[in-house]
Amino acid sequence: GHPIAARAIVESRLAKKVVSLSQAGLRGAALACLNNAQRQTPAISDQAITQLRQIVEKLQEGQFVKPANKEGWSQMGVTLIEAGKFKESVYCFQKAIELDANYETAWFNLGLAFSKSNEFENALLIFDRLLAIKPDSFHGWHLKGVTLGNLQKQDEAIACYDRALKLKPDLAEAWFNKSLALGRLHKHDESMSCCD
């Protein structure tokens, strides 16, 4: 691709991340992200770095900016997951769900936050709630399978991967995780057939 277009994409992603970190009260992480970006290829323009640094400097560490809508709450939750702040991310996803009880993205990110903090039973409850609302969510079925696998329930996990693959046959992650689950059950021939 064109170098200017590549830089514009990188700068846009950086801006989204830095602003999200700042608004989530993680000023130090936002500044570290900017410092890392200065050494990145393609190079970030000095103007973009300066503008983002000005945004970050307006907020104090720990100062939280309340998002305006469900998407904002969900994005802040994702930012907090990426920063390893799983408990804080749960609050954000719950706020997004309060605004829209059918918001699929917030439901599966809430389940993911519980999974990342090793609260697999809570994650399973969330994925079940998501699938009650949206039974055709291939992400929901896949993540429920991953959660069941983490709970050593391989047969149930495989059934979930099969549901995800029925909805989206080219979902590589589901094929991979199904192969792992079959391997854990010592069904090696079936496991290998997932990789064809």
Oligomer: single chain
Summarize the amount of helix as a percent range: over 70%
Rough outline: globular
Structural class label: mainly alpha
Task: Assess the beta-strand content as a share of residues.
Answer: under 5%
Secondary-structure element series: HHHHHHHHHHH
Detail the poorly predicted runs: none
Mean pLDDT: 86
How many DSSP H or I helices? 11
- State Rg: 20 Å
* Major sheet size, sense and barrel closure: none
Q: What is the β-strand count?
A: 0
Distance between the termini: 32 Å
Overview of this structure, please?
The model has no long low-confidence stretch (mean pLDDT 86). This protein has helices at residues 3-23, 27-37, 46-57, 70-82, 86-99, 104-116, 120-133, 138-150, 154-167, 172-184, 188-193. It is 73% helix and 0% strand. The protein is an all-alpha fold.
Give the topology, please:
Layout: H1 3-23, H2 27-37, H3 46-57, H4 70-82, H5 86-99, H6 104-116, H7 120-133, H8 138-150, H9 154-167, H10 172-184, H11 188-193
